[in-house]
């Protein structure tokens, strides 16, 4: 597999510089992600971007809620107990993260989550309420398109549950209809250099465990 392949190079970035992202570039990334395939070209996604003063306001409220251990919830069903196959990977993710960044690193990671990774912009993605699994599939492709497009344009990203676990702080700042559920948030920005939280690369399961080919 060639190394210049952006699918192999992208990884989550959880530490950003304070450099702002040009609004036209943010629009271009969403425009490119719109090329994602979808069921009957239904394009069930919508995107909302917070940056500048709006994001500072959301970040402040979010950090306060985390500090107060305010109970969180999401507008779509979160994983409620993993089945064995993903469960093993989740356990591995925890171990691997600690091995790579150490115990202090884990504290830093948790702290970075609380301040929304100090990202200069956040992209929120919504889906029509009570959508089918196919729409979830389509919107996942749209989200991944955002990550890859951002990488192509020299930006780092992290999709994070953390970002959308207090939906009211998002709805307070945007006009999001009751017909939509907030599905995912993606922090985006210019990665800091050489810091563990911006360089962390996670492994993947052995291909043979997830693939069957019959000839
Ligand atoms: C749906 C989803 C939710 C996630 N939530 C978080 C989160 O709340 N905090 C975080 O630091 N990373 C979060 N991540 C990032 C994953 O931990 C990361 O994608 C995974 O470990 C693989 O690493 P990589 O993206 O660097 O390849 C999330 C990723 C996805 C797709």
Give structural notes.
The chain is of the alpha+beta class. It has a single domain (11-202), classed as NADH Oxidase (3-Layer(aba) Sandwich), CATH 3.40.109. It contains 8 helices and 4 strands. The protein has helices at 6-9, 23-33, 52-67, 84-114, 133-152, 167-171, 196-199, 207-210, and strands at residues 46-51, 121-128, 156-159, 180-189. The protein has a 4-stranded antiparallel β-sheet. Helix 2 (23-33) crosses helix 5. It is globular. The protein binds flavin mononucleotide. Flavin mononucleotide (FMN) is lined by residues 11-12, 14, 93, 113, 158-162, 202.
Mind sketching the topology for me?
Layout: H1 6-9, H2 23-33, E1 46-51, H3 52-67, H4 84-114, E2 121-128, H5 133-152, E3 156-159, H6 167-171, E4 180-189, H7 196-199, H8 207-210
Antiparallel strand pairs: 1-2, 2-4, 3-4
Helix pairs in contact: 2-5
This protein binds flavin mononucleotide (FMN).
Keywords for this entry:
215 residues, alpha+beta, 4 strands, binds flavin mononucleotide, globular, 4-stranded antiparallel sheet
